[in-house]
Amino acid sequence: MTVTLYGIKNCDTIKKARKWLEQAGVDYRFVDHRADGLDPEQLAHWLELLGWEQLLNKRGTTYRALSDADKAALGPESAAALLQAHPAMIKRPLLDLDGELHLGFKPEHYARLFNQ
Predict the structure, then answer these.
(1) What's the rounded Cα separation, in Å, for the pair 7 and 91?
(2) What three-state secondary structure class fits 100?
(3) Phi, psi of 98 (to 5 degrees)
(4) What Pfam family is a match, any one (predicted)?
C-alpha cells in the first residue's frame, strides 16, 4: 500500500492527520506543497479526478483576498493557474491511497480507509 499525504506542514488539519496516521502505524510519505513545490502534471491529474471546485480551498486567506471579479471569473484554467501559483489554496490534507484521492481529514473516515 502506497500512502502519500499532501499539504502544508504548519496547517492544523495536516498536523491532526499526520498524528492520526502515526498513531495508527501507517507508513506514509508527506509532501509539503510550499516547501517541496507542486508538479504541474500532478496538479492536472488531481484536477481531472477531483475537479477544480473540490480542490480549491475557499476558506483560506489567499482565496478570501481575491477580488470579487477574480472569484467570479474562476474556471478550470484560471483555477489551475491559481493553484499552481498558490499551492496553499489546495484543500488539505490530500491523501493519495494507492492512487485513490481523499480530501480533508476526519478520524472516522481515515479509520475506515485503513481498517482501524
Answers:
(1) 8
(2) strand
(3) 50, 40
(4) ArsC
Whether pTM > 0.85 for this model: the answer is: yes
3-state secondary structure of 105: coil
Q: How far apart are CA 36 and CA 48, in angstroms?
A: 22
Domain ranges for the chain: 3-113
* Catalytic pick among 5, 6, 11, 46: 11
In eight-state DSSP terms, residue 56 is B
Which grid coordinates belong to 114?
485503513
What 3-state class would DSSP assign to 69? helix
Superfamily of domain 3-113: Glutaredoxin (3.40.30.10)
pLDDT in tens, 1-27: 899 999 999 999 999 999 999 999 999
